C-alpha cells in the first residue's frame, strides 16, 4: 500500500496541472449534471414490509384524501380577544384555501370544534393530495398568502403539520462558514503559514463540492433524504480537513529536515497517505454498516456520507501532492521557526511530547482513570430512547415550531401526533352486515376512546365499499413521549388482528424499535470488519484489540452524553437544544 501510494504521490506531483484540471473538470461536470438533470431530495420514512407501512399503503388506496400531507393553520387572537370575533374573515380565507394549489380538503375549526377552551386559539387543517416530498414550495407559499387577510385583521397565524415537516439543513450554511473560519484560524496558528493552513480547507471544500453536486445528480435516480447533503457536508468537511492535514503536516516536517520538495510530497503520500486510506476505510465501513438496519432512508444517509469520505480520501492522495507541487518551497519552514526547531531536535520537548511522557509514566493508572471516566460517561446510555425528529425539534423561531407549541398548549400534545386506526369491518371478528358497518365503526370508536392515554377519537370514515373504517385517535401525550408508545400497544391489543394502527407517529415508533434492535448487530459488524482491516494494516492482534476496546468505550460514552444532553437536558442551553426529554 505504501509503495503504491508513494508512486501515486510522485505521479500527482509531476502531473500536478493534469491532476488539478481533472478535479476541476469533475467538479464542473457534476455541477452541470446536477443543474440540468438533478432530482429533489425526498424524506421517505417508510419500513418496507412492516405492519404499519402495509396498513398505511391500504389507507392510501382506500382513503386517498387522507393519504397526503396536511398543514395545520393556527389562528391566535390577541390577549383579551376571542378568535370567533374574526370568524367571517377566517371563513373567507378557508374557502380560498380550498382552491389553493394541490389542496383537496379544508377543515373549518369552528364546525370541527377545534377552538381552545379560552377561545383564543383555533386550529384548521388543510389536506393535500400529495405527500410532503411531492409538494411544491409554491403551493405552501400560496397557502400562506391566502391567509394574509387574517394577519391584517390582527390575528397571528402560524403553519405546521406534516406539510411543513422539513428536516433539511436550510439556514445552516452560516454555521458551516463560522466553523471554517475557526478551522482556518487554528491551522494558521498551528502551521504559522497561511499557505499551509489554506491547503486543507481548499481541498476539503473541493471534495465537499464534488460530493454535494454528485448527490444532487444522483437524486434524480435514487431516493435520498433531505438530511443526506447536510450529513455529507459536515462529515466531508471534517474528514477532508483532517486527511489533508495528515499529508501537509508530514510534508512540512520533512521539508524542515532539508528533504527536496518532490521527494517529500511522494513520501508524505506513501506514509501519511496510508494512514488516511485505512482511516477512511474504517469510517466507510461504519457508515455503510447502517444498511444492516433495514431502513431505506437511514441506509441512504449512510451511503451518502460514505461517498463524502471516499471523495475526501481520493482528494487527499491525489490533489494534495499536486498542490504541494504548486506550493513548492513556500511550505518549507523558515530557519528558527517552531517546526524547524522541532524537527532539527533543539532539545526542547514539545507540548505533545510532554503529554505523552505524562500519560506513559504510569500506564496502568492512566488506563484505569480513562476507563473509569468513560464508564461514568457511558452510564446514562442505559436509558437511551430513540425517536424521529418532528416539528417540535425545529428552530424556536420557525413557524412550524410555533404552530407545534401553540397546538400542544391549546389542545394537548397529542394533536401534534395523531394516530390512524384502520378497521376491516368485513371480517368475521366484527361480523357486521353491510347496513350495520357504520354502527360497528361508531362502536369501535367508543371502545378506542376507553383506552388509557387516549384523549379523543374522531368520527369514523368509511371507504367507498364500506369495508374499511378509518379513525383518528388523539393520544394525551406527544409523538415522542414513551407513554404514546404504550397507547399504540394498547390500541393494537384491543383491536386484535383486524384493527391496525398506523400514521407517522406509529411508523416512527416502529423505526425507533428497529433502530434499538439493530444497534448491537450494527456495532458488531462494524467492529468485526474494522478489526480485520486493522489486522491487515498492522499485521498484529494487539493493535486491533486495543482499537476495538477503544471503540466500545468511546461509543458508550458518546451515547451516554447524548442521553444526558438530549433526554436529561444537561448543558442543553449551551449547545442550543431547546426541547429535551420528550
From TrEMBL:
Signal peptide extent: none
Q: Which UniProt keywords apply?
A: Cell membrane, Membrane, Transmembrane, Transmembrane helix
- Domain of life here? Bacteria
Alphabetized PROSITE patterns for the sequence: SSD
Query: Which positions fall inside the SSD domain?
Result: 179-326
Residues spanning the membrane = 177-197, 204-224, 230-249, 270-297, 303-328, 364-388, 519-538, 550-570
Which Pfam family, any one of them, does this sequence belong to?
Answer: MMPL
Keyword Transmembrane included in the entry's annotation: yes
Name of protein = RND superfamily putative drug exporter
Q: Which PANTHER family match?
A: MEMBRANE PROTEIN MJ1562-RELATED, MEMBRANE PROTEIN SCO6666-RELATED
The UniProt entry lists membrane topology as:
Multi-pass membrane protein
- Report the sequence similarity comment from the record: Belongs to the resistance-nodulation-cell division (RND) (TC 2.A.6) family. MmpL subfamily.
| UniProt keyword annotation of Transmembrane present | yes
What are its GO cellular component terms? plasma membrane
The record ties this protein, via SUPFAM superfamilies, to: Multidrug efflux transporter AcrB transmembrane domain (SSF82866)
Q: Which InterPro entries match?
A: MMPL_dom, Mycobact_MmpL, SSD
Per UniProt, subcellular location reads as: Cell membrane
